[in-house]
Design brief:
Blueprint (H helix, E strand, L loop, with lengths): L5 H21 L9 H12 L9 H10 L6 H21 L12 H22 L4 H26 L8 H11 L1 H15 L3 H28 L4 H5 L4 H9 L3 H13 L4 H11 L2 H25 L6 H11 L14
Helix pairs in contact: 1-4, 2-5, 3-8, 4-5, 4-8, 5-6, 6-7, 6-8, 7-9, 8-9, 9-14, 11-14, 12-13, 14-15
């Protein structure tokens, strides 16, 4: 079935989102002075480019509710600003800081991330031609999104592979990735004038989509060769599949040993990657991906909405739920 995909939509509205971001940045420019704040946030936005154009997600929600994606362009700008801040802070928490040392120091980027993630989104909300009650509700969603996302990220940072399960990792994913997506889908539903019941359904959809997108990101990390999760000692869902597949206490201890060594050893990362891509592990991962995809589609069926725009959201769900990893990608032993 042909439908307008999220990439298609972004191609048509990207200039509108950029214009909204530029307007937001102008609010930082003082009537006199150096304009250092605007400059720092601009440089952070250039440095922390998002790899996928998911900024259109609130526009897709608004279109499903009303038939018109346009009024949610400001929320797309909020989405970009929030994730720009969150991704930088995530890099900082992982010990990476900023690699743009020639144009943006770590201290500048940290201060810019505060403006990007908190101040500018609130200023955008306050500029919307909506009632004070809607502005209050939208601002509350930003606060909640930060709390839930931070809680999930802290859980992720403190993750202990020895005690991790698939369920415990899903709870962390529901916070660190699901929280921000539930924030923006709920905001779009509120802006559209949807009922409280529909806002909560969109919030739950955002949580499930966030889990799917984190599982998608985990796969991309392996396929790209970045292996940031192994280098950072991150307890991923795929890793818990390996731990639960380990047949004996001895085999489990071996996996945990490779996890501990993977931060500093290329050999350990290669061995752990081989275990992550074992057929039984990938079978479990595929089954769980399918279950989360089915739940996202169930929510969309319940929500229904504009028939022209729902297929695009279903397409996005299917894209996020792809099984990209294959057993034949197992690297040769080092």
């Amino acid at each position: 079935m042909n439908c307008v995909t999220y990439v298609d939509l972004h191609r048509h509205v990207s200039l509108d989102i950029e214009a909204e971001l530029e307007t937001a940045l102008l609010r930082l420019a003082p009537t006199s002075g150096t304009g250092a704040a605007k400059s720092a946030v601009s440089r952070l936005l250039r440095h922390q480019k998002l790899r996928h154009p998911l900024s259109v997600l609130p526009m897709m929600v608004h279109a499903i509710e009303t038939g018109d994606p346009g009024p949610a362009v400001p929320l797309s700008a909020v989405h970009v600003l929030w994730w720009t801040s969150a991704c930088y802070l995530d890099d900082l928490a992982d010990g990476h800081g900023t690699t743009a040392s020639d144009s943006l120091s770590q201290n500048e980027a940290l201060l810019a991330s505060v403006l990007s993630g908190a101040v500018l989104p609130i200023q955008i909300i306050r500029s919307l031609p909506v009632s004070a009650a809607v502005q209050v509700a939208l601002t509350a969603e930003i606060a909640t999104g930060w709390v839930v996302g931070t809680e999930g990220q802290l859980t992720d940072i403190d993750g202990d592979a020895d005690g991790a399960t698939r369920n415990s990792v899903v709870e962390a994913y529901r916070g660190k990735s699901g929280g921000p997506f539930s924030m923006i889908t709920a905001m779009a539903a509120i802006l559209s004038g949807a009922s409280d019941e529909r806002v909560e359904l969109w919030r739950e959809f955002g949580y499930i989509f966030g889990i799917l997108w984190q599982l998608f990101n985990d796969q991309e990390d392996i396929l790209s060769g970045r292996n940031e999760d192994l280098l950072n000692g991150t307890v991923t869902y795929l890793l818990t599949c390996v731990l639960e597949e380990a047949g004996t206490p001895g085999a489990r201890e071996d996996v945990l040993g490779w996890c501990a060594a993977a931060r500093n050893s290329e050999e350990a990362r290669a061995e752990l990657t081989r275990l992550l891509l074992a057929p039984a592990v990938l079978d479990q991962y595929t089954a769980d991906l399918d279950a989360f995809r089915a739940e996202a589609h169930r929510l969309l069926t319940t929500l229904d909405g504009d028939a022209h725009h729902v297929p695009g959201m279903r397409h996005l769900v299917d894209h996020a739920a792809q099984m990209l990893l294959r057993t034949h990608l197992v690297p040769a032993p080092v």
